[in-house]
Amino acid sequence: MKKLFFQFFGFIGISGIGWLIDFSIYTCLTSFTDIPVAYANMISSFPAITLVFIVSTRKIFDNGGKIPVYAKYIIYLFYQFVLVALVSMAAGKLAPWLGEIFEGKFENISKLLAKIAITPITMVMNFIVMKLMTEKM
């Protein structure tokens, strides 16, 4: 149980760095371009995903199993593509709804709040998938 605790918080730490990268790119895309929220989220996610995968497989999880790391990365990218597409669509629907709550006065804030709202979902899912994939496959 202690190992799982340290893995979870190590993953949260490196994911936090990845999230800062992701959030910075996302903020620039949604603030300075006309790229829709869903597309901005898809674009901003993948540099962070790569960083988190590399560090997690080297420093956080026991990289056992029969599948080589590069194959796990391809599998993880496929999983991330599906997850990011789903949460990006959710963010794309959530941002206008939040904009309505703010009566259109804070459009960029509603986009940022949508990104923040989807983060806990992706964080937990990524931890579970990364742990299972690196240690069991």
Describe this structure in a few short sentences:
The protein is mainly alpha-helical. It has helices at residues 2-32, 37-60, 69-101, 107-136.
Produce the secondary structure layout.
Blueprint: H1 2-32, H2 37-60, H3 69-101, H4 107-136
Characterise the protein shown here.
With 137 residues, the chain is an all-alpha fold. It has helices at residues 2-32, 37-60, 69-101, 107-136. Helix 1 (2-32) packs antiparallel against helix 2 (37-60). The protein starts with a helix and ends with a helix. The model has no long low-confidence stretch (mean pLDDT 86).
List keywords for this structure.
137 residues, mainly alpha, 4 helices, 86% helix, elongated
Instruction: Provide mean pLDDT, rounded.
Output: 86
What percent strand? under 5%
Total beta-strand segments: 0
Overall spatial form? elongated
H/E topology pattern = HHHH
Gyration radius (Cα, Å) is: 16 Å
Unreliable stretches covering 5 or more consecutive residues: none
How many H/I helical runs?
4
**Helicity level, as a percent range?**
over 70%
Structural class: mainly alpha
Distance between the termini: 21 Å
Largest sheet: none
